[in-house]
Amino acid sequence: MTRVVRFHKLGGPEVLRIDNIEARPPAADEVQIRVKAIGLNRADALLRAGTYIESAPLPSSLGLEAAGIVEAVGDGVYDFVPGDVVSVVPPISMVRHPAYGELASFPARLVVKHPPWLSFAEAAAVWMPFVTAYGALIDIAKLTRGDFVVVTAASSSVGLAAIQIANAVGAVPIAVTRTRAKQDALKAAGARHVIASAEEDLLAGIEAVAGKDGVRVVLDPIGGPIFEALTAAMQPGGILLEYGGLSREPTPFPLPLVLGKTLTLRGYLIHEIVRDHERLAAAKAFVIDGLNAGTLKPTIAKTFAFEDIVSAHRYLESNAQFGKIVVTL
């Protein structure tokens, strides 16, 4: 038997509960992990609430990121043995491969022997933010030295990872956050410039940094009304990568700007990197190299005990965090 977090009905954090269930052995090409830390993501809360891109058959477990010790391996797995210290690139389906439990199994291709100096909590905070940001900025946008890049929701784990990746390749990260409350922390985290979108004009703020020529790359998980200011601040031929939809307001399509500047507005999910063996291998190598060089480092906002999973989800939905929320076992 093993303890797992599940929900038996859709709803808020209060629907989460810890159940004892029979642990299934790892299937072929899977690695079973004795979980020591879990990284929380906005997607976890969306699945729990019934608003995620994947539907949960009830009762359902959840979770996309974990770190721990290999407990067992399935048939066809030769790169891992029990006792290996590992962490997990988020799977395509958290319903099929949930992370919230004492034991969890994942496809072997998504399991990584991370640098040994990382703690379990740090390792559980690596792969979602850094692979997401890498896929958008490096794999797709080809971010390079001297590029200006606007990063909205900059204090999120992905936002902070994007800032670090931009600095690692010599680009200029412009962090966008709602208020100035997190300005000093964002600058300490590597943001070259910080714009408080609720307290100043977003377009004017970007132009004050990048000039009238504009920015080439925008990474945004929000959508909504800021789309017009973001596209107005972009240079001809620029690319905006949308990887979320946090705004509850309609997102306008700025047709004159898109046509006049021949902009690319592109939807993006980490899944397109995870599904592709070659692109995933390149992402892993980039992140591991950055971790070892010290240019990339996960940012942990707060840790919670496994038994406090409801409180952890309430904190996740408070939007107060700066970086990744981690649950430890």
Automatic annotation (TrEMBL):
Its EC number is 1.6.5.5. Keywords: NADP, Oxidoreductase. CDD domains: MDR2. GO terms for molecular function: NADPH binding; quinone reductase (NADPH) activity. The keyword Chaperone does not apply. Residues 11-327 form the Enoyl reductase (ER) domain. The keyword Oxidoreductase applies. It holds the Pfam family ADH_N. InterPro entries: ADH-like_C, ADH-like_N, ER, GroES-like_sf, NAD(P)-bd_dom_sf. This is Quinone oxidoreductase 1. The lineage of its organism: Bacteria, Pseudomonadati, Pseudomonadota, Alphaproteobacteria, Hyphomicrobiales. The gene is qorA_1.
